[in-house]
UniProtKB/TrEMBL annotation:
InterPro entries: DUF4267 (IPR025363). This is Uncharacterized protein DUF4267. The chain crosses the membrane at residues 7-26, 46-67, 74-92, 104-123. Keywords: Membrane, Transmembrane, Transmembrane helix. It comes from the Bacteria.
Amino acid sequence: MTTKISYAIAFLLGLAMIFLGARFFFSPEVATAAFGIRFNAHGDYSFHHIKGIRDIFSGVLLCALVLMKERRALGVMLVVATIIPVSDMITVLEKSYTNVQQAIPHIAATIICSVVGILLLTAKPQLKQPSK
């Protein structure tokens, strides 16, 4: 049961990452503000495209690993990928104009990735029932 819930959470996380990444392409100013930083692009959205494709890739990979039922690979990815929201949180908190409120999404992502990743890695493989 825990594995199914972990798969569901990971899949939803993947879909959320795809949405967040797409938002950096289609609404870069909104996405940047929601991320927790100010960025005056002066019409150059290169940073937004780099950030957007990173998020889309991460989301597609999460969803693919869930759909392929690659429990251990998904668990490893989530635990290792925790470095991304931790780094994002540090970046946000280093700004003089931000506070913990802007870092909450990054803190939540860190907790979700680490907990779900550990649950998937420590879950016992399910034995297949013989066909009758």
